[in-house]
User: What shape does this take?
Amino acid sequence: MNIALTPENVALNERLQELHNAFTQAYIQHKTMVEDEAPILTSLYWDKLGGLQLKLLEHQTELSRIKMKISLIQAAINRNETPDWDGINHEIEKRLEKYYKQIAEQSQAVESAQKVLSSLLSEEEAKKLKEIFYVLCRRLHPDVNPGQTQEQKDLFIKVKAAYDLQNLQELQTILLYLDEGGNADLLSHSSEEKRRRIEQLEKNIAEIKDKINKLEQTFPFNVRTILFDEGHLMKRRQEIQDEIDATVTEIEKQQFILDLLEDE
Assistant: This one.
């Protein structure tokens, strides 16, 4: 009997094929989450909630400014000193520098969100991009294709770059360039080599799945449910608006106190 066709080798070949598919799927899922979904989800978050959050931060910063000024004026009065208005204003600007930076960053995030969302591929193109990327990863990823030539390694680098840039045409060109022979024949490897590759692939798959699970617990993936549920979105918008309203009310109270101190 041909050794390559023994039940043991057939089982090893089937397991390798199964793990090749599983690794490719996990690899693409992780890469997609990090490089595609994360920017889109973040952009959706800023598009749907960012404007309100920016408004809240601006009001909170104004409230902090007023409270700081009251505190500094009151401190001077307690020392029986005439408030140094220029010094007070300079100190406030210094203390609020990080808040102003946050406002600028959030404002930029809201603006960038619009650009990201307006430049996405169509649903059909995105599906095709992912399908071709899967095929190319299956044929070129070094973890499922040991013993690659330098050309194959270079091609995989180009594949990743084209995918990152959402360059569908480039991926299609690379796919056409590859011959139809596929990967190295599994039957040409020894049983020992197959077992070693199976063990390594199982380890790699477990590591990637662990990374995926950790990603799911962090922003922006942990707000994915909210972003695609209008009920949750409305509730969160109202919560932010309530915070804004409460902050505005407090600003009015503190501004009244500040006006009294400045008039003394």
